[in-house]
């Protein structure tokens, strides 16, 4: 995990711990008003019994609304609704001078709203937000697991076909989709649609309560499709939303190597997962540097038509498996924000693209590279640097919660600074809040010693 020492570079700390309340769920307007520290676990616990959900509900219980607005909030439904920020309809934002303003897409602070809508890290704190909700259309989700074998290019094509029908029929687009690539020749695509309780309980249908503490970790369970072949089951909607929480995707295997064993799951599985905040507090500098050199945690956003290239590049440079694939729309906005579609994408109309949005994919790498597992040498800093350069050349983006090797020049090559700098000047952030690059850059002591830059 990335060093967060930048948080100590402040004159005083503002206590936001009380801002963790769901203020209102408006079932007529289909909007939820929440405070920034409200977690996804809180929201799904409140909305799912009402047969409602946020349009984008990212997977981990502890992810907060404020954190998701500040970063890349993504879920299995993002191929329809976009990133988490695309579902926000209004924000109350605290500026550098303490003033609170309400920003929407069409009021006098629309530039601030658009800036928040597409930025890897920002300089103001959202005080409240209103997020779009939608009907779940059922309390279960019919889930299809489909094994895929072939080259990485063929796996990428099968993944794209799972949510972009070749005949263009919108009725065939699933409500949820994700892919997991287990090796350079095997993967599993998973698609789901909302289903009623009556349908789920029909004779012959199988309901899988994946959220129970003793159940197999989801990524390992999905991998069984490679032996079983394609199969269908029904998963309670809230348990589907948080399917990766117990195992932290597959990082849990490195944190607790025996955590996936039945005896541990049955006796102690209720303890999972360890809190990310606790891991950050207890992670010393030596351990952090060890992970920087021998471990990869990276989320990168790439255009859908570049997924096969990204997988092939990552196999050569990282060889980290499993790999998570999750599609999302990247909308064309009135101004060029830090994260934006490829210029002229609407003219090509590639698979998944529309006139108003380009289809991207989050490609997630969270594990030790195969070379490390084999006991061979691996230079994490150089590998991440090469990945970043590939992203810059291919109009991709790196999630800035992870370790970044980007220089200031390369950071602004990846993330367009024009609208960002306009808003920093207009709203008084310059001289009060550090820039996004300073927050995410690697400190000297992370590079192997020396004074802090």
From TrEMBL:
One matching Pfam family: FAD_binding_4
GO biological process: steroid metabolic process
Keyword line: Membrane, Oxidoreductase, Transmembrane, Transmembrane helix
MF (Gene Ontology): Delta24-sterol reductase activity; FAD binding; oxidoreductase activity, acting on the CH-CH group of donors, NAD or NADP as acceptor
Protein localization: Membrane
Coiled-coil annotated spans: none
Superkingdom as given in the UniProt entry: Eukaryota
A GO CC term attached to the entry: membrane
EC number(s) given by UniProt: 1.3.1.72
InterPro entries found in the cross-reference section: Diminuto-like, FAD-bd_PCMH, FAD-bd_PCMH-like_sf, FAD-bd_PCMH_sub2, Oxid_FAD_bind_N
Domain FAD-binding PCMH-type: 1-165
UniProt membrane topology term: Single-pass membrane protein
Name used for this protein in its record: Delta(24)-sterol reductase
């Amino acid at each position: 995990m990335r060093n967060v020492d930048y948080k100590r570079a402040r004159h005083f700390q503002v206590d936001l711990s009380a801002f963790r309340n769901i203020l209102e769920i408006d079932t007529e307007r289909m909007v939820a008003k929440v405070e920034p520290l409200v977690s996804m676990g809180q929201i799904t616990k409140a909305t799912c019994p009402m047969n409602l959900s946020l349009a984008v509900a990212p997977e981990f219980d502890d992810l907060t609304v404020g954190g998701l607005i500040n970063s890349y909030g993504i879920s299995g439904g993002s191929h329809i609704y976009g990133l988490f920020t695309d579902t926000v309809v209004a924000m109350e934002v605290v500026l550098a001078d303490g003033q609170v303003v309400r920003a929407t897409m069409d009021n006098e602070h629309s530039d601030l709203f658009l800036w928040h809508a597409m930025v890897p890290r920002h300089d103001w704190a959202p005080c409240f937000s209103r997020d779009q909700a939608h009907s779940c259309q059922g309390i279960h989700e019919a889930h299809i697991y489909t094994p895929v074998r072939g080259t990485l290019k063929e796996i990428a094509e099968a993944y794209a076909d799972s949510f972009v029908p070749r005949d263009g029929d919108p009725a065939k687009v699933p409500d949820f989709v994700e892919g997991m690539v287990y090796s350079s020749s095997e993967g599993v695509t998973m698609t789901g649609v909302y289903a009623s309780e009556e349908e789920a309980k029909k004779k012959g249908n199988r309901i899988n309560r994946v959220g129970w503490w003793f159940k197999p970790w989801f990524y390992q369970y999905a991998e069984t499709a490679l032996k079983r072949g394609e199969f269908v089951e029904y998963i309670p909607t809230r348990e589907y939303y948080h399917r990766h929480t117990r195992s932290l995707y597959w990082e849990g295997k490195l944190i607790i190597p025996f955590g996936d064993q039945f005896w541990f799951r049955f006796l102690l599985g209720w303890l999972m997962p360890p809190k990310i905040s606790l891991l950050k507090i207890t992670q010393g500098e030596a351990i952090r540097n060890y992970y920087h050199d021998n471990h990869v945690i990276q989320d990168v956003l790439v255009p859908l038509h570049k997924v096969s290239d990204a997988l092939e590049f990552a196999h050569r440079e990282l060889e980290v498996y499993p790999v998570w694939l999750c599609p999302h729309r990247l909308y064309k906005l009135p101004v060029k924000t830090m994260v934006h579609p490829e210029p002229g994408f609407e003219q090509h109309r590639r698979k998944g693209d529309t006139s108003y949005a380009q289809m991207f994919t989050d490609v997630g790498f969270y594990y030790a590279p195969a070379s490390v597992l084999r006991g061979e040498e691996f230079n994490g800093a150089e590998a991440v640097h090469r990945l970043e350069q590939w992203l810059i050349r291919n109009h991709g983006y790196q999630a800035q919660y992870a370790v970044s090797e980007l220089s200031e020049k390369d950071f602004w090559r990846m993330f367009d600074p024009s609208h960002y700098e306009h808003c920093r000047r207009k709203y008084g952030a310059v001289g009060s809040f550090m820039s996004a690059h300073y927050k995410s850059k690697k400190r000297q002591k992370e590079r192997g010693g020396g004074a802090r830059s």
